[in-house]
Specification:
By secondary structure, the protein is of the alpha/beta class. The protein has a single domain, classed as Histone deacetylase domain (Arginase, Chain A), CATH 3.40.800.20. The strands form 2 sheets. The protein has an 8-stranded parallel sheet, sandwiched between helices. A two-stranded antiparallel ribbon has the order 2-3. Strand 6, helix 6 and strand 7 form a beta-alpha-beta unit. Helix 4 runs parallel beside helix 5. The longest helix is centred in the middle third of the chain and has 20 residues. It is globular.
Length: 311
């Protein structure tokens, strides 16, 4: 198993986010990834590789070029320690721009593209330890800690070579992925997430948005392992019926019972079972990291997932 990782993620480190009008500590912090890579190295999991460099045209297949240029140009103008909440191209108050945002976000996107290229070279499973995450980033907007939609960029790359399914198991609905692929019939998006009536992003992830190639499974707060696995099985059946040549998994551990911004009751061992069931699909898999904000157990949850999916 290859693991794609770059220390460039640390260049994006906003000091705060705005929640209900108040400045709060930034939950999507570098320590999440630092803990993950420490655990992976200690347990000798996978072959850790740096992302390759890809031209911006691959990101521009998913995001508007003006939006890409905006993040690049604003990042360059900011000084160290400065933070910008732009009035344009932003959908909420959880995705400020800093002077390192563009470099970190582009490297994360390159990580997903690198993983996708390894699948094309014959790898069966690649995990991309991306930060910042991506599944809330739309065609021309940032939000929910996300700037470039890493999973969507990887899926778009693979879509040139076959049918692609995206399975989103982050606690929050991937409104950005839905936005990008909603009108497509060559990419299936299946998302299991918290009921958007009570949790971010609030505006999408409802059953009423379901169509043949876009399937949402909103779940109530307090969802347990058993209840989650029942719906998870239905999601895997959707993917089997689609006949995907490649699977992209948006992996979130904010479904964990201790997550500070979650609300499900999943436990560490369940991620190994989830990984094992995904692997049973027996198609090339690109796993892309999204959320998960309880830092002390982030690495252990990831370890559980990779042990399952690597079997």
């Amino acid at each position: 198993m290859r693991i794609i990782f770059s220390a460039n993620h640390r260049q994006h480190n906003p000091p705060f986010e705005i929640y209900d009008g108040q400045m709060e500590p930034y939950a999507e912090k570098p320590e999440r990834i630092d803990e993950a890579i420490r655990i992976l190295r200690e347990n000798n999991i996978g072959r850790i590789c740096r992302p390759k460099n890809f031209p911006l045209k691959f990101i521009a297949e998913v995001h508007q070029r003006d939006y890409i240029n905006y993040i690049r140009d604003k990042s360059k103008l900011l000084k160290s320690g400065e933070i910008l909440y732009p009035s344009y191209y932003i959908s909420d108050t959880y995705a400020p721009i800093t002077n390192g945002t563009f470099e970190a976000a582009r490297t994360a996107a390159n990580g997903a593209l690198t993983g996708a290229s390894y699948l094309r070279d014959g790898e069966q499973m690649v995990y991309c330890l991306c930060r910042p995450p991506g599944h809330h980033a739309g065609v021309k907007n940032m939000g929910g800690y996300c700037y470039f939609n890493n999973a969507a960029i990887g899926a778009q790359y693979l879509s040139h070579f076959g049918r692609v399914a995206i399975l989103d198991i982050d606690f929050h609905h991937g409104n950005g992925i839905q936005d990008i692929f909603y009108q497509r019939d060559d990419v299936l998006y299946v998302s299991i997430h918290a009921d958007p009536k009570v949790k971010y992003p609030y505006s999408s992830g409802y059953v009423s948005e379901n169509r043949e190639f876009n399937i949402n499974y909103p779940l109530p707060l307090g969802t347990t392992n058993q209840k989650y696995l029942k719906v998870f099985g239905q999601a895997l059946e959707n993917i089997r019926n689609f006949g995907a040549d490649y699977l992209v998994v948006s992996v979130g551990f904010d479904t964990y019972k201790k997550d500070p911004i979650g609300g499900f009751k999943l436990t560490t061992p369940i991620y190994e079972k989830i990984g094992r069931e995904i692997a049973s699909l027996n198609i090339p898999i690109l796993a892309v990291q999204e959320g998960g904000y309880f830092v002390p157990d982030f690495g252990l949850n990831l370890l559980s997932f990779l042990r399952g999916i690597g079997k």
